[in-house]
Amino acid sequence: xxxxxxxxxxxxxxxxxxxxxxxxxxxxxxxxxxxxxxxxxxxxxxxxxxxxxxxxxxxxxxxxxxxxxxxxxxxxxxxxxxxxxxxxxxxxxxxxxxxxxxxxxxxxxxxxxxxxxxxxxxxxxxxxxxxxxxxxxxxxx
Length: 141
What we know:
Layout: H1 19-32, H2 45-58, H3 72-85, H4 87-101
Helix pairs in contact: 2-3
């Protein structure tokens, strides 16, 4: 008789940041991207991060972001600002460090995924096309 393997329950997909992770990210964000003293108030930073995760996981367009995450332009601006200020790099480094302490990273085997496609509009031209010289024909008159 065949043995039945014990079913392993997969971890849930992350769509929103939990409270423990948000505390770590909030401290990094306050250090690298403190709120300005003047100007308009920013959109909710936690909702913005959840919106960034939503767009990155679904591959959807920014203008199709559900309203529960806030204004799509504000969420996109927040992402661009955090990229420029290195917030995501710092968060990634801390997450890898914590994951390594838990033994959750197998450094012996890693893989990358990519897609190749046709360049839109023909890509970038490597050189200008030379002009054809004007035909110097004799005057028939």
